[in-house]
Amino acid sequence: PRRYIATNLAAEGDLLEAARKNPRDIDMLLRMGLDVLAGQEAMHEIGVVHCDVKPENILASHGRERWELTDFDIVEATGAPKIHDLIRRSLGSYAIPDGGRPVLGTPGYIAPENFQGDDPGPKTDVFAVGVTMYRVATGELPFRSETFEDYKIAVTRESPVSARALNRAMPLELGMLTMDCMSPKPQDRPTTAEVLNRLLAI
Question: How much is the pTM?
Answer without folding.
Answer: 0.85
